[in-house]
Amino acid sequence: MWAGRFAAETDSLVNDFNSSIAFDSRLYPYDIQGSIAHSQMLSEQGIISETDKTAIHQGLNKVLAEMNDGKVAFTSQYEDIHMCIEQLLTEEIGDAGKRLHTGRSRNDQVALDMRLYVRDEIKSIYSRLLHFLEVILSCAQEHIETIMPGYTHLQRAQPITFAHVMMAYANMFKRDLIRLENTYELMNECPLGSGALATTTYPIDRERTAALLDFRKPCDNSLDGVSDRDYCIELASDLSILMMHCSRLSEEVIAWCSWEFKFIELSDAYATGSSIMPQKKNPDICELVRGKTGRVYGDLQSLLVTLKGLPLAYNKDMQEDKEALFDAIDTVKMCLDVLPPMFETMSVYKENMLHAAQNGFLNATDCADYLTKKGLPFRDAYKISGTMVAWCIEQKKTLNEMTIEEFKNFHSLFDTDIYQAIDLSNCVESRKVYGGPGKESVQKQIEQIRKFLESRNE
Ligand code: ARG
């Protein structure tokens, strides 16, 4: 390949070291798509003949079909996917194949391939995430009245509903979707025509190739065009945040299906057993999602560090962007494939959730609020309610189990309507405030996300 400048053969060790075909072969459809657009533009500009262009297109489509059929062995005799395709094309069509690379470099070629690939992968992650959000949404709708304890510091705090929790995650995933949209929008510019670094002297039409490949516009600076990997970092960052959300949700599920909580049970198809302990049913999926989150963070870190010291323009270090980004993308897709059916098939134990909410004085705030609404300053009411909780713990009873005389012993403002005020469903329902756990409020949250989904599914 380097014939001309080089007298000796490349050492085979160097060949192997240099070669990226083992991992960049997945870019072949994009490389061919880019070459078809490039040669189309070259012929339109009169840089190559119409006949050569036709031969190139036919040859490339043949190579594509062979690769789709798994007939091509991607061995390290080819340095990378770009060389591989060009070589196979030339074997197929002869001299016309050698004209394809006119006015182009592998530097703008690989920059283009990666952008085409990333655009596609953003779309496929996006549609998986839309589906997961739909699943979360129907889970919320189903459990809009399912009372459970809300926690802070993992201590029972105030009563909420399972729907309220689901909608918290729905909002996180909605932001993840918007982040993906923004990343797509910002990176949707075409680097083709940047050449090795300084474009070319051929009268190429960069607007035309950008349009043929459905990019918003060509990249504005050729040095930047070949060396920008911001979008890889940005996508890895979006994916890290998305994984962080999946990981937090997984952590909840792990806790919820423990014997200590028993709020849910995973379906047998989405849980695993132990090789020694016959009674075990383990939430491995969730643990793996949590574990793989670290892996995706690692991919982001690796991209950041790879790029940090690089002078303009292309440096071979940039070949290292691929495995990290591919790994992050593959990992996220696997997680998003397995989480939705796990949620769709799990059983929710409403009674256990309610029972947990009934113990732990989750209505102590409501008890204090009752006195406050009757005129007592909140701080005084807070103290009285706290004293009552301490007394109840001693007496081994809940606030609801106190007699009206016992209530009145703590303050004369207490009357029989206290029972209604500290009733759990009432505590939830009275939180009608925007964003709160009351049925009306959660229904509004569901509608908002539903509208968002509709606007994105159009
Ligand atoms: N395999 C290379 C990569 O992934 C392609 C670009 C190589 N360009 C070069 N001048 N060595 O980055």
Please state the average pLDDT score: 97
How far is the N terminus from the C terminus?
48 Å
Q: What number of structural domains do the residues give?
A: 3
Bound molecules: arginine
* CATH topology (fold) name of the largest domain: Fumarase C, Chain A, domain 2
CATH superfamily of the largest domain: Fumarase/aspartase (Central domain)
CATH class of the largest domain: Mainly Alpha
CATH architecture of the largest domain: Up-down Bundle
Biggest sheet character: 2 strands, antiparallel
Tell me the layout of helices and strands.
Blueprint: H1 12-18, H2 21-24, H3 28-44, H4 50-68, H5 81-93, H6 95-99, H7 106-142, E1 147-152, E2 155-161, H8 162-187, E3 189-190, H9 206-212, E4 217-218, H10 222-227, H11 230-256, E5 264-265, H12 284-308, H13 321-345, E6 347-348, H14 350-358, H15 364-373, H16 378-395, H17 404-410, H18 418-421, H19 424-429, H20 439-457
Parallel strand pairs: 3-4
Antiparallel strand pairs: 1-2, 5-6
